[in-house]
Design goal:
Elements lengths: L1 E4 L11 E5 L7 H17 L3 E6 L3 H5 L11 H10 L4 E5 L3 H4 L3 H12 L2 E7 L12 H10 L3 E5 L3 E2 L2 E2 L2 H9 L3 H8 L3 E8 L4 H4 L6 E4 L10 E9 L22 E9 L10 E6 L10 E12 L6 H19 L2 H6 L7
Parallel strand pairs: 1-4, 2-3, 2-5, 3-4, 5-6
Antiparallel strand pairs: 7-8, 9-10, 9-14, 10-13, 11-12, 11-14, 12-13
InterPro entries: FAD_synthase, Riboflavin_kinase, Riboflavin_kinase_bac, Riboflavin_kinase_bac/euk, Riboflavin_kinase_dom_sf, Rossmann-like_a/b/a_fold
Catalytic activity: riboflavin + ATP = FMN + ADP + H(+); FMN + ATP + H(+) = FAD + diphosphate
Keywords: ATP-binding, FAD, Flavoprotein, FMN, Kinase, Multifunctional enzyme, Nucleotide-binding, Nucleotidyltransferase, Transferase
Length: about 350
């Protein structure tokens, strides 16, 4: 995978490309359709498939603090794009100057001069240039002028829903991670570093958890408890001296079943939202490790219990449900789920 940060890093000897353009937050099933079509055309033409994406999010330039929560960080978007056949990524620093380009300037500078595009693949809702003045008709007209093939893909609809990043966020806000996963075509995940929490999970309750540090910009499901998977994503060795593996060693890159708590802890009066993962049948010192938590299905909302005994009973039930749900994880991901209660 070639990564070019800005137009100046595009190789001067690039002899052609097939280009797809967008923020691609989440790389959902609709985005995947665009990328696969661009990759198919690139193979036929014998040129690289290039994804053009923007960082920061365009909305943050014009409405600071109003940008949507992030479904996937840039590095993960790139990884997901590679899985769809994208061979190079051009990361554009979105600025007011870029936004001020006319559609004609935008097309010439980026698509023709820099990427020497033979073809462009975009969705039917794609706009470009000043105030989004460039439309599907503009794109086709400019393509004809510069001898660039233009493919406009219809938006992906399934189960009477338009698959888009906004839809995924709406499902997450509802806590309906099963439907979010269906729209994404994979399990929704968050990535972060394990940091020290209150410490009561292992010492007081017997359920040691890995507490993730996550930026506020990351999209989280609604407060509640979820069944999911836990993966160590770095290669740093786990400290065996202070780790107690109940059922063998934890290995980076391996997915482990986990019960995940998202939100505040009302039973103990905690007010800060957090993500805590209890990895089933494993216990290891993970502080400082970078990990990924994937969400499979929601078990229950966050509840304020009347005492520790009631909480422990609920947590034991969470573990039992997690095992049952993860046993049919593939089935949940493949089938269009019904709306959550």
């Amino acid at each position: 995978m070639d990564i070019w940060r800005g137009l100046k890093e595009v190789p001067a000897d690039l002899e052609g490309s097939v280009v797809t353009i967008g923020v691609f937050d989440g790389v959902h099933r609709g985005h995947q359709t665009l990328m696969r079509e661009a990759s198919r055309q690139a193979r036929e033409l014998g040129v690289p498939c290039v994804m053009v994406t923007f960082d920061p999010h365009p909305i943050s330039v014009f409405l600071p603090g109003r940008q949507p929560t992030r479904l996937a960080p840039l590095d993960y978007r790139i990884t997901l794009a590679a899985e769809q056949g994208v061979e190079a990524v051009l990361i554009i620093d979105f600025t007011r100057e870029l936004a001020g380009l006319s559609p004609e300037e935008y097309f010439r500078v980026m698509i023709v001069d820099a990427l020497r595009a033979r073809s462009v693949v975009v969705g039917e809702n794609f706009t470009f240039g000043t105030d989004g003045a460039g439309t599907e008709a503009t794109m086709r007209e400019l393509g004809a002028q510069h001898d660039v093939d233009i493919t406009i893909m219809p938006l992906l609809h399934d189960d009477d829903l338009c698959i888009c990043s906004t839809l995924v966020r709406e499902f997450l806000v509802e806590g309906d991670v099963a439907r979010a996963n269906w729209a994404l075509g994979r399990r929704y995940s968050v990535r972060g570093e394990v940091v020290r929490g209150a410490g009561r999970g292992g010492k007081e309750l017997g359920y040691p958890t890995a507490n993730l540090y996550l930026p506020e910009s990351v999209a989280l499901p609604a407060d509640g408890v979820y069944a999911g998977w836990f993966t160590i994503t770095d290669d740093r060795a786990i400290d065996r001296e202070i780790s107690r593996d109940i059922d063998g060693d934890m290995v980076p890159g391996v997915r482990y079943p986990t019960a995940v708590s998202v939100g505040t802890n009302p039973t103990f009066g905690d007010e800060r939202r957090s993500v805590e993962a209890f990895v089933l049948d494993r216990e290891a010192d993970l502080y400082g490790h970078h990990v990924m938590v994937e969400f499979v299905d929601r078990l229950r909302p966050m509840v304020k219990f009347h005492g520790v005994e009631e909480l422990l009973e609920a947590m034991a039930n969470d573990v039992t449900q997690t095992r049952e749900i993860l046993a049919r994880d593939r089935e949940l991901l493949d089938a269009p789920p019904t709306p959550a209660d």
